[in-house]
Structure formats: C-alpha cells, structure tokens
C-alpha cells in the first residue's frame, strides 16, 4: 500500500502531499521531490500515512530521493544567487523608475527559474525590467505581485505580543478578519493597536472570536432594561472574562453585576 507524506518547501508555507515510494521517511527529513516546476527541495513535516486515508483522489507526485550533502550545497548557492539577483533587480527598478517594492527573490532548486516578489499600489509595466533580468541572469524570470499580508508572511518579524508573527511561523493561509471581531471582544478600536506589521487587522483577532460569540449567547443584549438590587437600568457593556455585565442605572450610576445574579430576570 502506498504511503503519503506531507512536505513543506518554505517556513509556514503550504503542506503538499507526496507519495513516499520506496523511502522510509520521518518528520524533519530533507527530500528532493518531483513538482510541476521540476525538482524541488523540501522538508517532511508529517509522518507517512496510508494513501487510502486521503480525502482527495488526485494522483500524487513522488519523492525523488533523500537530500544529500550536494543538495544542501546547491541550496546555499541558490541563496547567494538570490541575493545577487535582488541587488541587480533593485538597481534596474531605480533605473527604470518603476513604482514597485521588491522584497523577495526565490530561485528554483534546479536553477532554471527565478521569481521576483513585489508589492505595488497599482499595475506595473515590467516588460523592460524582465528583458534586463533575463539578459543578465540567463534564466527564466517570473515577476509576481502580491498583497501586503503576503509580504509580511514572507519577510517575517516580531509582533506586538513579542513573538514571531503568526503568518510567518505557522499560518498556512489567511482567513477573513473584520473590525466586528475586535468589537465583540471589547478591544480597543484604535487602528495602531489592532493592526499587524502589514497594516491590516491582526490575524489573532480570529482566534477567540467564536468563543466570545458562544459565551455571549447567555448575556443580555446591549441596551436591554434590567432590574437590579440598586434599581432598574440599561445594559451598556459586557465583560465576558468576568462573566458580568455593566448596567447604567436610571439615576446615572454604573453597576457591575454577575451574570448568575440576573439570569432569572432576563426572561
């Protein structure tokens, strides 16, 4: 029975399934695999499982071989070539006065193609740039414009929490994030406090959102009139962590009341 293994080509990148073939692989092994772009260098990130447990019936490409010392040397050489290509491309961008921000360069494992990643506020006519790059580098060149969130994922960095940004450490893809998630968690709506390095809303706003929504199902809605030991008042704020609500009494004072004390009066 065929075995399937998960392989990742770059940090926090998507995990792809490959057929192990005759190889006995373990998590952390470096392998050379067959891809649509030719041979690729990746790392095993999941232990092999039986192919019958796959959800997809799409045919798999195979692990070509285990990576050796020569392959690691090739990877290091590619990194040096990427740095040189980045420097030359940046010089060409300045020479052609193109409105684009080049931030990353990736060379395929076999050296047949170099991909340049950039961001821009609009469309960029980079045809002349490609001609200069092909003439200088002598390989196939691809220019790829990506969004600001993908730039943060590829570049990495430290978030305001003091840890490596989620997108560059383990998030494989981006989910939708809305300002409502911050509102439901009673977070500050100051853009500088709820935005990540990319300038967009932080991905971590989604982590506890569903939990807050589930817990709030037992809370009286904002604006509901309640009878309290201090008199009647209107709910103005939820405190999910403390399991309490803040009520503004008719006389203008505010009172924090535990949810258990008012549950019988919410009907």
Major β-sheet annotation = 5 strands, antiparallel
Helix-strand topology string: EEEEEHEEHEHHHHHEEEEH
| Unreliable sequence segments | none
Radius of gyration: 27 Å
Number of domains: 4
How far apart are the termini?
60 Å
DSSP helix fraction: 25-40%
What is the overall silhouette? elongated
Structural class: alpha+beta
Number of helices: 8
Q: What fold name stands as the CATH topology of the largest domain? A: GMP Synthetase, Chain A, domain 3
Largest sheet: spatial strand order: 2-1-4-3-5
Level-2 CATH architecture of the largest domain: 2-Layer Sandwich
β-sheet strand percentage = 25-35%
Number of strands: 12
Quaternary arrangement of the chains shown?
single chain
Q: Specify the CATH class of the largest domain.
A: Alpha Beta
Overall description:
With about 270 residues, the chain is of the alpha+beta class. It has 4 domains: about 60 residues, no CATH class; about 80 residues, GMP Synthetase, Chain A, domain 3; about 60 residues, no CATH class; about 40 residues. The protein has a 5-stranded antiparallel β-sheet, with no helix packed on it. A 4-stranded antiparallel β-sheet has the order 9-10-11-12. Helix 1 crosses helix 2. The longest helix is centred in the first third of the chain and has 28 residues. The model has no long low-confidence stretch (mean pLDDT about 90).
């Amino acid at each position: 029975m065929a075995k399937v293994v998960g392989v990742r080509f770059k940090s926090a990148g998507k995990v792809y399934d490959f057929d192990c073939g005759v190889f006995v692989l373990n998590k952390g092994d470096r392998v050379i695999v067959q891809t649509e772009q030719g041979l690729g260098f990746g790392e095993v990130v999941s232990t092999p499982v039986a192919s019958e447990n796959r959800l997809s019936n799409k045919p798999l490409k195979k692990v070509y071989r285990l990576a050796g010392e020569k392959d690691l040397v090739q990877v290091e050489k590619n990194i040096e070539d990427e740095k040189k290509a980045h420097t030359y491309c940046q010089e060409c961008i300045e020479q052609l006065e193109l409105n684009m921000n080049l931030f990353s360069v990736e060379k395929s494992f076999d050296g047949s193609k170099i991909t340049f990643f950039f961001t821009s506020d609009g469309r960029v006519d980079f045809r002349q740039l490609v001609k200069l790059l092909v003439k200088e580098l002598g390989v196939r060149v691809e220019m790829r414009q990506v969004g600001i969130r993908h730039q943060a994922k590829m570049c990495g960095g430290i978030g305001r929490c003091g840890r490596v940004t989620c997108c560059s450490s383990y998030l494989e893809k981006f989910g939708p994030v809305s300002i409502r998630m911050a509102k439901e968690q009673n977070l500050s709506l100051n853009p500088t406090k709820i935005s990540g390095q990319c300038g967009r809303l932080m991905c971590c706003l989604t982590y506890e959102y569903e939990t807050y929504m589930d817990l709030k199902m037992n809370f009286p809605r904002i604006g509901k009139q309640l009878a309290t030991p201090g008199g009647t008042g209107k709910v103005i704020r939820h405190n999910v962590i403390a399991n309490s609500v803040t009520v503004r009494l008719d006389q203008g004072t505010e009172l924090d009341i535990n949810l258990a004390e008012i549950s019988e009066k919410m009907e």
